[in-house]
Design goal:
Distance between the termini of chain A: 42 Å
Largest interface: A-B, 87 and 91 residues
Shape of chain B: globular
CATH architecture of the largest domain in chain A: Sandwich
CATH architecture of the largest domain in chain B: Beta Barrel
Oligomer: heterodimer
Helix content of chain B: under 10%
Radius of gyration of chain B: 28 Å
Shape of chain A: globular
Number of domains of chain B: 2
CATH class of the largest domain in chain B: Mainly Beta
Strand content of chain A: 35-45%
Number of strands of chain B: 51
Structural class of chain B: mainly beta
CATH topology of the largest domain in chain B: Maltoporin, Chain A
Structural class of chain A: mainly beta
Strand content of chain B: over 45%
Number of helices of chain B: 6
Number of helices of chain A: 3
Order of helices and strands of chain A: HEEEEEEEEEEEEEEEEEEEHEH
Largest sheet of chain B: 22 strands, antiparallel, barrel
Helix content of chain A: under 10%
Distance between the termini of chain B: 65 Å
């Protein structure tokens, strides 16, 4: 809002932009950058990089640290030393997976840098699918409208979530459009993201607005992949109903997936700070003289060590469940659509 | 010998205290009343009523009132004020008398410009760190877009800075913009800005003058830490109808005034409006339309009930509007709009209770409101959906105050009074409206933070005494109390000032003032955005408090033609607020503010040199300030102190006006300021933001360094104006031509990093955005 107003003013006053030579303080000390987003779905991994002076023009590929020692530890004397796997990534070679609800600590030591330490956990997530029901068909749009209900049991303390809804469908890539559904068996079966409507007042399309107060309930709003917090159901169970229009297909029946993710506070705060900083790099921030600081839970370093938990409900229109392998769902690059 | 001198001093002091207590050594009489302009009946503040034989005198107060006590005899009185012919009257004073003096405005010729010998008021007055600028002076200074801006003139004084380029903001002696008490006819204004800060709300046609006090605040002022900016509106001509109109590049003004009942009641009505929209159309297209504008209305009326009673009504209303309309296809439109307004209305009663006692009572209401609205409308086969969401923030103040001024004798002046302000803060109200075809419209109101009432009360007393012929002392105390929600607070604020004459042309001055501020402005410190929120002190958000010590010397050269002053000051502040790191400041209206901000300390010190020439063909001033302003917050900069965002080490202003002929004068101003601090990023690194599939593509993230550790480039510019006056049969016409930033200096308004991303690297460089480069000014004015 403010940006809009002041960008206009700049235009009006025939602004002039020029490069300035500011004296960036000397004596910059490089720090380790830790990034580990862990969940019980994948083995332990971490990317370790380094920061450089602002005016250093090194490639991103030069900002990795390949000679670090990365140790993850948890309760019951759990400890795993991750091995370097290229491109700055360190992974567990012992096939260890994080567990939700358990606090883990990551220690990273690398020559020439102060050692870092950070702790976090993947939150517990309890969710249950309650119902799916058919509502109506719209032949003009070739869609069927469904309603789906599920509930989330919130843990005490601040919690943040994301929500996504998918339809199983043949998908291809169309130039100038991107991915599109084509009801043709020659295209691979994919998870196709659906928009949905909900009367829940606290879904947010942008991570920056999640802590805003709730907007009054005025009807069903349209969402894609919203973020939300537990500010309306702290430590309680909350039911949600989503309505959506799914393309009816001859190739494959109506199968859907709700993907719910619980983000740790560290992950949420870090992501939000990255988004906000990115908004104000390369353009003036008229309302605030100060730079946008990145959140970090890494002592003596930067970045984040933070967990998340994913829960997926795979449901067909008749209320049954399905699995990806049985339906032949694949991931990876899309094939081009044929005209 | 030395012992004798001390005895003399003691005797003098006893004599003085005797007279303060009303113990007369001879029969005394008091002459009191007002000093007025003979052509308009307008009362003249700061005029001098002087008895040369006795070397005693009085100065009129803000309302033109004076009181002078002397022994019963016949004396020659000299009544004078800058811009008026001095008047000499011999009066036989046998009993207490009320006399209204009238002064004739001086018609200046080139010949007599150099022979004016003013009284040396800056040396005589006890108040230090004070500047008073008449509208006549301001009107001939350089202007932007042809628009006279009083606040921009104040920025040319030492110790005063504008903040970001082009802004009308005031950052005084290391203080922040919210620490200035900006008064219009005695009532506070919260957002004195038009067009996001490029112009102030004060229409020069409606103003009589402005007084700026940077330190040593008298006890009658309180509630802010850094300054008092006291605007007084003209009263309206009691004798004849007249007015003023002005046509500028982006706005026009019109003022009319005249008697309602001759010599008994008068009015003044002034309006100002902009017409920027035709310019904005140049940047619009059929899909995108911009609109922007502001207006001001000032009204004042007064009624003289009797020689001792006069009533005034003052009112101000001003509003800004901005909107951006986007049309998509023929069926959709989106509109974003912001508007804000200030309103105030006051009723004042001047009452001359006796020959020694003057009272001024005021009742008033001030309102500041900001609203942003987003609207959309979609039309399709199924009907129409209109959606509107607006956010409203408002402050409403009810003010009541009474001030008494008591002058028992020429060497003693006592002021006392009381003030109460009931604030009603509504920082965030949202209104959402949905209007769909075939459904009843739905409207919902939400006030996440509710309405926050608070009450400020204050009592004060000021006592100004000439203890010795060379020594004036002013002592004062202000007792203030505050109540909001569960929070109660009080404050004892001592004020002290002294003036020691060192010879005929020199005075040494010192002052101390302690003050407390019960309201805060939540701001990111950038442009003067109306969404910056005023919030009251509350639990975990303490009032701001501070003190200032100042010491200075004033010297008058060549019979007052030149005035030179040097002042040093030290200011200490507590309860300053800054946003906590990472707080989401765009949505501060919705949050629990104490969680958003940190309380910290601030200190500022500096030295100001000021040379002024008020008379002659060549007039003007030069000011130089050396200053430092630092802040310290527990969770910012690792608890280490850091330069304030508006810490400017060197600041120079040179302002010159030259009368080329009786109808032509030119003026120029050169401003220099060393660079403001910039809080820069010092490091960069690659991040691969989280996504549902794990790491995304790496891109640059930046690490911040020590707070405000770099400096922006220095600021300087030169402005010129030339005025051509011509007397027509019905009016005086003035054509003004000028140029702002004559040598087209690209001064920094905003400093920001730019990331020139390529696929595998990132090159960060700092850029500045410069506004207000060479801008011509043109205006045509008629005074009738």
């Amino acid at each position: 809002m403010r940006k809009l107003v002041l960008i206009l003013l700049i235009t009006w006053f025939s602004a002039c932009e020029s490069m300035v030579d500011l004296e960036i303080p000397d004596g910059y000390q490089s720090k380790l950058i830790i990034e580990s987003y862990f969940s019980s779905d994948s083995i332990w991994s971490m990317r370790v990089g380094k920061s450089v002076h602002l005016l250093d023009t090194s490639d991103f590929s030069d900002l990795i640290v390949p000679n670090a020692q990365v140790i993850i530890s948890g309760r019951n004397n759990f400890s795993d030393t991750l091995e370097y796997d290229g491109s700055g990534f360190y992974r567990s070679v012992h096939n260890h997976y994080p567990q939700s609800g358990i606090n883990y600590t990551a220690e990273v030591i690398a020559p020439g840098f102060p050692g870092t330490i950070s702790s976090s956990q993947a939150p517990l997530l309890r969710s249950e699918l309650l119902e799916i029901r058919y509502i109506s068909r719209d032949d003009s749009l070739q869609t069927d409208e469904y309603a789906i209900r599920f509930k989330v049991e919130d843990q005490s303390g601040p919690n943040y979530y994301t929500l996504a809804l998918y339809q199983v469908a043949p998908v291809c890539y169309l130039e100038n459009w991107g991915s599109v559904i084509r009801d043709d068996p020659k295209y691979s079966i994919r998870l196709w993201g659906l928009r949905f409507r909900s009367s829940y007042p606290d879904f947010h399309s942008y991570i920056e607005t999640v802590d805003d107060p709730t907007i009054p309930e005025l009807g069903f709003y349209d969402y894609g992949f919203p973020y939300f917090s537990d500010q309306l159901f702290e430590a309680r169970t909350q039911e949600f109903e989503l309505r959506f229009d799914a393309t009816y297909l001859n190739t494959i029946g109506p199968h859907f997936m709700i993907q719910l993710q619980a983000l740790s506070v560290d992950l949420f705060a870090y992501e939000r700070s990255i988004v906000i900083q990115d908004l104000f790099i390369s353009e003036p921030n008229f309302s605030d003289k100060n730079p946008n600081l990145l959140y970090s839970n890494v002592q003596n370093g930067l970045g984040v060590f933070a967990g998340y938990t994913t829960k997926r409900h795979q449901v067909s229109a008749d209320g049954g469940t399905w699995n990806e392998a049985a339906l032949g769902v694949v991931r990876g690059e899309l094939q081009d659509c044929e005209e | 010998m030395q012992r004798l001198s001390w005895l003399k001093i003691l005797a003098y002091v006893i004599f003085q205290w005797g007279s303060f207590a009303g113990i007369g050594f001879a029969q005394t009489v008091t002459i009191s009343g007002y000093v007025e302009d003979s052509s308009s009946g307008e009362r003249i503040p700061a005029a001098s009523v002087f008895i040369p034989k006795l070397h005693i005198g009085a100065t009129t107060n803000q309302y033109g009132f004076y009181s002078l006590t002397t022994d019963s005899s016949s004396y020659l009185f000299m009544v004078s004020h800058i811009g008026y012919d001095a008047q000499f009257n011999r009066l036989h004073l046998l009993k207490d008398t009320t006399v209204t003096f009238t002064l004739n405005p001086r018609v200046m010729t080139l010949e007599d410009m150099e022979v004016v010998a003013p009284r040396e008021t800056a040396i005589d007055e006890i108040q230090m760190s004070r500047h008073e600028i008449s509208i006549e002076e301001i009107e001939i200074l350089p202007v932007v877009f042809g628009e006279i801006d009083i606040q921009k003139t104040l920025q040319l004084l030492p110790g005063v800075q504008s903040g970001i380029e082009g802004s009308s903001g005031l950052y005084i002696r290391g203080g922040r913009a919210d620490q200035n008490l900006i008064l219009l006819d005695g009532l506070p204004l919260y957002n004195p800005n038009h067009l996001f800060g490029f112009f102030s709300v004060f229409n020069a046609s409606a103003m009589k003058g402005v007084e700026l006090i940077k330190g040593g605040f008298p006890a009658r002022f309180g509630g802010r830490l850094s300054s008092v900016v006291n605007y007084t509106m003209k009263e309206g001509n009691l004798k004849r109808f007249g007015g003023e109109s002005s046509l500028g590049l982006i706005s026009s003004r019109l003022m009319i005034e005249g008697p309602i009942a001759k010599n008994r009641a008068s009015f003044l009505l002034a309006g100002r409006s902009t017409y920027i929209n035709p310019f904005l159309r140049l940047f619009s297209d059929p899909q995108n339309e911009y609109r922007m504008g502001f207006y001001d209305l000032n009204f004042k009326a007064n009624y003289i009930l009797s020689q001792k009673n006069r009533f005034y009504v003052s009112a101000y209303a001003g509003q800004d509007k901005f909107s951006f309309l986007e049309r998509r296809f023929a069926t959709e439109f989106r509109k974003f709009a912001v508007d804000w307004h200030n309103r105030l209305v006051s009723l004042r009663w001047n009452w001359l209770i006796g020959d020694h006692l003057f009272a001024n009572s005021l009742l008033g209401i001030t309102q500041y409101r900001f609203r942003s609205t987003s609207e959309s409308e979609d039309l399709d086969d199924s009907g129409r959906i209109a959606y509107e969401n607006s956010w409203l923030s408002e402050i409403l103040d009810w003010t009541a105050k009474i001030d008494f001024e008591y002058a028992p004798n020429p060497r003693h002046y006592l002021r006392f009074g009381a003030e109460g302000i009931l604030h009603r803060f509504s920082p965030g109200t949202t209104q959402t409206r949905l209007d769909e075809s075939n459904r009843p419209p739905l409207t919902l109101l939400q006030t996440p933070t509710g309405i926050l009432p608070s009450l400020e009360l204050a009592l004060y007393v000021e006592d100004e005494i000439q203890v010795l012929p060379i020594l004036q002392v002013s002592t004062g105390i202000r007792l203030s109390g505050y109540s909001a929600q569960e929070k109660q607070s009080y404050s004892i604020e001592p004020r002290f000032a002294l003036n020691v004459r060192a010879g005929n042309h020199t005075a040494i001055k010192a002052s101390f003032a302690r003050s407390k501020q019960y309201i805060h402005l939540l701001t990111g410190g950038g442009a003067a955005i109306p969404t910056d929120l005023w919030i009251p002190s509350m639990e975990r958000l303490s009032p701001q408090k501070g003190y200032q010590i100042a010491l200075g010397i004033v010297n008058s050269i060549q019979d007052g033609r030149y005035q030179v002053s040097i002042e040093g000051y030290y200011k200490r502040m507590r309860g300053n607020i800054e946003y906590t790191l990472g707080s989401d400041r765009f949505r501060s209206a919705f949050f629990d503010w104490p969680d958003l901000v940190e309380n910290g300390l601030g200190s500022a010190y500096g030295l100001e040199l000021f040379i002024r020439k008020k008379h002659g063909y060549l007039r003007g001033w030069a000011g130089y300030t050396w200053a430092r302003s630092v802040r310290q917050f527990p969770f910012l900069n690792q608890g280490q102190s850091f330069p304030d965002g508006y810490d400017r080490r060197h600041d120079i202003s040179i302002v010159l006006q030259y009368q080329l002929s009786e109808s032509t004068h030119i003026s120029a101003a050169w401003i220099y300021g060393s660079g403001y601090p910039v809080w820069v990023y010092t490091g960069r690194f690659a991040v691969g933001a989280w996504s549902e599939h794990g790491f995304g593509y790496p891109y640059s993230a930046l690490e911040t360094g020590p707070v405000n550790s770099a400096r922006a480039p220095n600021y300087h510019r030169l402005d010129f104006t030339i005025h051509f006056k011509k007397q027509r049969s019905w009016a005086e016409r003035t054509i003004t031509l000028g140029v702002y930033n004559a040598y087209n200096r690209q001064n920094p308004m905003f400093i920001y990093p730019r990331d020139d991303d390529s696929s595998n690297t990132s090159v960060i460089s700092y850029h500045q955005l410069s506004l207000l480069q060479l801008i011509p000014a043109l205006s045509l004015q008629y005074s009738f």
